[in-house]
Amino acid sequence: MDMITARGLRKVYGSGTAQVQALRGADLDIAAGSFTAIIGRSGSGKTTLLHILGGLERPTAGSVAVCG
Description:
Helix content: 10-25%
Low-confidence stretches: none
Number of domains: 1
Strand order of the largest sheet: 2-1-3
Strand content: 35-45%
Shape: globular
Mean pLDDT: 94
Distance between the termini: 9 Å
Order of helices and strands: EEHE
Number of helices: 1
């Protein structure tokens, strides 16, 4: 059973020509009892992803389900 499921996560900051896409359609499944590492280069959206999964930020598009 998946503890966390995310589909099509997108996060855009700013508007117009100053727009920055922090996430571009991220999908994620984390099983209950598993350990998961989020890795990537600086500026790749790791912190934004964790903020969305933790409910601290809303995604521009997509969905997150915790415990179903």
